[in-house]
Design brief:
It catalyses: beta-D-fructose 1,6-bisphosphate = D-glyceraldehyde 3-phosphate + dihydroxyacetone phosphate. Keywords: Glycolysis, Lyase. By secondary structure, this protein is an alpha/beta fold. The chain is globular, with a radius of gyration of 19 Å. Bound molecules: 2-O-methyl-1,6-di-O-phosphono-D-mannitol.
Length: 341
């Protein structure tokens, strides 16, 4: 393992001004997104859509440090025959790959899941490295509800994340460690804070036991937000302060960067809250984005599967990338948001 090289990639992935595009929707998820815009989820349509994102030159060059791909995409070629991985690299961005095989029901834990995909992972990592990946992603899902999460769900998912991260580093790939505490439900912001703290503390304990080098990884957590159906929602400033407080209590300063998921927040909420955190400052890591929905919703709606709409979709994607890039610097404002749109 070359820790200096891993640290260099992890630092580049979370460099101020830039963030990560999560374009690793699995077959079922991309179908859901395409259904919403009336587009059939064929291999060609998925390629065309993702190619339009990766060829959004200004956004990719200026604001997107890395792209998380799905297994199909890392093997795909653009319409002109160029591998999509090369299109991403030509834009100065780093290709990465989702390597988990999804969240499956956890036995004897109703409503809870364990992310699978460890069997044969070493061999798959070797292949992905040969295909051009420099980093990987594994997402664990923690649900909040009556009586959950359980110790079993948190421990099993943290253990799997640590085993995945160690295998990645063994193969000189930077692991993105993503323990997502879902915002589905009517729980309070206090409950999200308590569950996220429990989850992160368990994850870092397991990373230590698995001998994962913190300098060579990126954490992808949720922000501390109330459940989407909670009657009491919270201002951005409170979300920012609570999130920073939890991170300071759980994440060692050796971790170079933290890249948030958007998790179902609106596009502008995800931007405003990232900006609010970077305005507070006073923490040892770079705080950036690794958004899927909050970067892609606008371009998907603008595209709607029509070639004539490609420029409009690229403009929509570039706008969100620019706004989030400013948020990593604490330089986004609602006025810029409106003016630039
Ligand atoms: C892009 O969505 C990712 C893949 O989801 P599935 O495996 O369910 O298809 C997802 O892991 C994503 O990378 C993160 O959750 C961040 O995306 P959001 O949309 O929450 O910012």
């Amino acid at each position: 393992m070359d820790l200096a090289a891993l640290n260099k990639v992890a630092t580049a992935m979370t460099t101020p001004g830039k963030g990560i595009l999560a374009a690793d929707e699995s077959g079922g998820t991309i179908k859901k997104r395409f259904d919403a815009i009336g587009v059939e989820s064929t291999e060609e349509n998925r390629r065309d859509y993702r190619e339009l994102l990766f060829r959004s030159e200004k956004a990719m060059h200026n604001r997107i440090s890395g792209v998380i791909l799905f297994d199909e995409t890392i093997r795909q070629k653009a319409a002109d025959g160029t591998p999509l991985v090369k299109v991403i690299e030509a834009a100065g961005s780093i290709p990465g790959i989702k390597v988990d095989k999804g969240a499956k029901p956890l036995p004897f834990c109703p409503g809870e899941t364990i992310t699978e995909g460890l069997d044969g992972l070493r061999e798959r990592l070797i292949e992905y490295r040969e295909l051009g990946a420099k980093f990987c992603k594994w997402r664990a899902v923690i649900d909040i509800g009556p009586g959950i999460p359980s110790h079993d769900a948190i421990n099993a998912n943290a253990h799997a994340l640590a085993r995945y991260a160690a295998l990645c580093q063994e193969q000189d790939l930077v692991p993105i460690v993503e323990p997502e505490v879902l915002m589905d439900g009517d729980h309070t912001i206090e409950r999200c804070e308590a569950v996220t703290e429990w989850t992160l503390k368990t994850v870092f304990q397991e990373l230590y036991y698995a001998k994962v080098k913190l300098e060579g990884m990126v954490l992808k957590p949720n922000m501390i937000v109330p459940g989407a159906e909670c009657a009491t929602q919270a201002p951005d400033q409170e979300i920012a302060e609570r999130t920073i407080r939890v991170l300071k209590n759980c994440v060692p300063s050796a971790v170079p960067g933290i890249a948030f998921l958007s998790g179902g927040q609106s596009d502008v909420e995800a931007t405003a809250r990232l900006d609010a955190m970077n305005r507070v400052g006073g923490f040892p890591w770079h705080l950036t984005f690794s958004y899927g929905r909050a970067l892609q919703h606008a371009p998907q709606v603008a595209w709607a599967g029509k070639t004539d709409n490609v420029s409009a979709a690229q403009a929509a994607f570039s706008h969100r990338a620019e706004m989030n890039g400013l948020a990593t610097l604490g330089k986004w404002t609602p006025e810029i948001e409106k003016k630039a749109a």
